[in-house]
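Weekly structure sync, notes
Attendees: PL (lead), two postdocs, one rotation student
Agenda item 3: pending single-chain targets
PL asked that the sequence for the first pending target be pasted directly into the notes so everyone works from the same version. It is reproduced below exactly as submitted, 469 residues in total.
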Amino acid sequence: MRAFMDKDFLLQSDTAKTLYHEHAAKMPIIDYHCHINPQEIMENVRFENITRAWLGGDHYKWRQMRTVGVSEEFITGNAPDREKFQKFCETMPLLIGNPIYHWSHLELRRYFDCDLVINGENAEAIWTLTGEKLKQDSFRARGIIAQSNVKAIGTTDDPVDDLEWHRALLEDPTNDVIVAPTMRPDKAINIDKPGFAAYIAKLADVSDVNIGTVEKLKAALLTRIALFDALGCRASDHGLGYVTYRRGDARMVEDIFQKGLAGEAVTEAEAEIFKTELMLFFGGEFARLGWVMQIHYGAQRNCNTAMLERLGPDTGFDAISTRDSGEAIVGFLDALAKTGRLPKTVLYSLNPNDNALLGTIIGCYQGDGVGKMQHGSAWWFNDTKRGMEEQMLMLASLGALGTFIGMLTDSRSFLSYPRHEYFRRILCNLIGDLVENGEYPWDKKALGALVEDISYRNAVRYFGFDLPL
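Predicted structure, written out during the meeting:
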């Protein structure tokens, strides 16, 4: 029996151990997609206790606490932080096989040098130990980033955001980490969602453009794209329930937009026409600027409407959608490619059944740089051990694993960077199995470079960060 989470955790062969310890482990982190608040980085926030640092805003952990029957009072309610942490610890022994069990123990060990098993009995000792550590400056936001060897962070930002904290970070001589905004223009295309007209009015205000037509909408968005670009943006991100590709002529698109501006309901077909027009516009502009277009799709959002009304969105009540997007993805990418306006693109599906689909689609549009089209890392419900293995094995089978841009946290927590370690251990074990099985030759130099590229260098090159390779 192996010890619990020892130094060779998840590494099942000598090859895997060598690749991880001598290569992957030493590489810096490029966290190119997350939901960290740049204001907290600029202000170098200090976390009052482990509940604030670990559980605040983390709907992964909230969801698992609900699964084992914890009352909402101890999750998002007004219970004292110490009691919330106790409830969280008490759930952990039930999470065998869940990545949260592994992530949480990695975080406890890497940051707090604590190898206690997380459970109800150890909660007080963990609370006290972490509380003392969190008083140190090295556990403020920037200290955690430095401890984690993070070199670049891609936040998630709305086009109407003023990006004042990104500007401040760029001008701060004490900040040595790239904190790049990422444009998330979902509200500008979601003409079928409540609040669309009010959002367009806000966009008009911040862009100083009177948005009365589709062309004026695009002009307003161009002013925001220019601001993002000036402040170091290297990517967009689009959270879509499903990918749409339904064309309409200019008059039709204009009529649909006017309905949206008037607060009138639009049909699903009308919404798809409008979204397609805007997404094609974005794709062309991002290609012009050399940005990466990230598309996350396949989520059923806010499934529990009662809890949506109580807590709002992004609180742990989403699920996988099985709606097919394959033909629409091809239509969308092909429309951009045939006009020479296809940007570097990362496709993430929340449905793991799409792994082969995406693996074959991206192969149709490669070129203009190694790995131009990317099958994004296993996302959200899929960033489990098995989910990561399946995504990488399919990418290896249908494409080129060596061009993969690797892991991201997709997290709101500064303590989530050990997820990169979790990924790298799984990666090295997967490659180790192929070598040990005689499916790839043992070439330490080539294999070491491969895992270093996937862990770090491929992302630096792909997003164009000014960092050493």
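Discussion points:
- Residues 301 and 318 are 5 Å apart (CA to CA).
- The chain has a mean pLDDT of 97.
Action: rotation student to compare against the earlier draft before next sync.
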